[in-house]
Design goal:
CATH class of one domain: Mainly Alpha
Structural class: mainly alpha
CATH architecture of one domain: Alpha Horseshoe
CATH topology of one domain: Serine Threonine Protein Phosphatase 5, Tetratricopeptide repeat
Order of helices and strands: HHHHHHHHHHHHHHHHHHHH
Distance between the termini: 74 Å
Shape: globular
Strand content: under 5%
Number of helices: 20
Length: 350
């Protein structure tokens, strides 16, 4: 009722003075504060009908379109904004974000660079460039921009985590650990930093420290799906398979629509020779990813373990249909078909 009263009061002000933009802005801001983006969008459109060159309305409308993944509409809003304020770095930065999201590297890069020309001391732009280069696997260039972002603002833990991820990917585990620790020192309740530390200690075979950090992550948020999945991987690395299974089951309970935990769980069950259980899990994953050839191959492999070549061939055929250019699947299928024929000739299936 309180919300309805505020909205009604703001609308009354608009009705009383329909040309006063401030009233529309107040209503739009209230909608945004209430996470009601659809109504905020409508209000910003109303503003633009009255003042087509209202810079703030265009920027905010573009941001809503971006959030709603309506990227072409977002681009149009930002380009109109540039015509109004061509020296505003934020417009180019936002436009760069859109192009980065749709994986247009060149246009994202040019807009970020223009934003830097206009505001060379903005750490967020350097971080965005780091992410852009990291996304195309140019890790040296990415690291350079992340370091510049940290030089300008050493309070953003996300940039330390980004550099640490690069160090880890390039095999510099101790350097990665150092950067993760810096992120953690900035905010020891940053669950992402906590899980990254746990994963790094697991990589270094320091499983006690790893589990201490996983425990802290779960204490921070017991429904944080990545913590349970990563913890399970660490348990596997330390040959604690029953604990890994329990962690993966917890992850599945938290989010039954994500396939990662199912696949890892099924893989462990296969290693444990619990084939029937693994088969059930893989088939559950297949419902989530019906066109994934890897899942069909996993199912086929389990049927081979169960000496059920008829079903194995059926699922290898499905995998080949899903990935017709995958020569490895074709080779496995040929081998299975050959084995099936040999067994048939020996009378195994009779």
């Amino acid at each position: 009722m309180f919300r309805e009263n505020i909205v009604a009061e703001l609308k009354q002000k608009i009705d009383a003075n329909p040309s006063k933009i401030e009233n529309y802005i107040n209503l739009a801001n209230y909608y945004i504060g209430s996470d009601d983006l659809n109504n905020a969008l409508l209000v910003y459109k109303q503003i633009l009908e009255i003042q087509p060159n209202n810079f703030q309305a265009l920027i905010n409308l573009g941001s809503i379109y971006f959030y709603k993944k309506l990227y072409l509409d977002a681009i149009n809003c930002y380009k109109k904004s540039i015509n109004i304020e061509p020296d505003n770095y934020a417009v180019y930065f936002n436009l760069g974000n859109v192009y980065a999201e749709i994986e247009n590297f060149e246009l994202a890069l040019s807009n970020y660079q223009k934003a830097l020309e206009l505001n060379p001391d903005k750490s967020d732009i350097y971080a965005a460039l780091g992410y852009l280069y990291q996304d195309v696997d140019n890790l040296n260039e990415a690291k350079k921009y992340y370091l510049k972002a940290i030089e300008l603002d050493n309070t953003n833990g996300e940039n330390y985590i980004s550099i640490a991820n690069i160090e880890q990917k390039t095999g510099n585990i101790n350097d990665a650990l150092s950067y993760y620790e810096k992120a953690y020192d900035l905010n020891n309740n940053d669950i992402k930093a906590v899980v990254c530390l746990a994963n790094t200690f697991a990589t270094l075979k320091n499983f006690k420290s790893a589990q201490d950090y996983f425990k802290k992550a779960i204490e921070l948020d017991e429904n944080y799906y990545p913590a349970w999945v990563c913890r399970a991987i660490a348990y596997c690395d330390n040959y604690e398979f029953s604990k890994a299974i329990d962690s993966l089951k917890q992850a599945i309970e938290i989010d039954p629509n994500k396939p990662n935990a199912y696949i890892l769980l099924a893989n462990i069950l296969v290693d444990e020779k619990r084939y029937e259980e693994a088969l059930i899990i893989y088939k559950t994953v297949q419902k989530l990813m019906p066109d994934n050839p890897k899942i069909s191959t996993f199912i086929a492999n389990v049927y081979v373990m169960l000496d059920n070549y008829t079903q194995a061939i059926k699922y290898y055929k499905r995998a080949m249909k899903q990935a017709p250019k995958d020569n490895e699947i074709k080779l496995i299928y040929i081998e299975m078909a050959d084995q099936y024929i040999k067994n048939k000739m020996k009378g195994i299936y009779e």
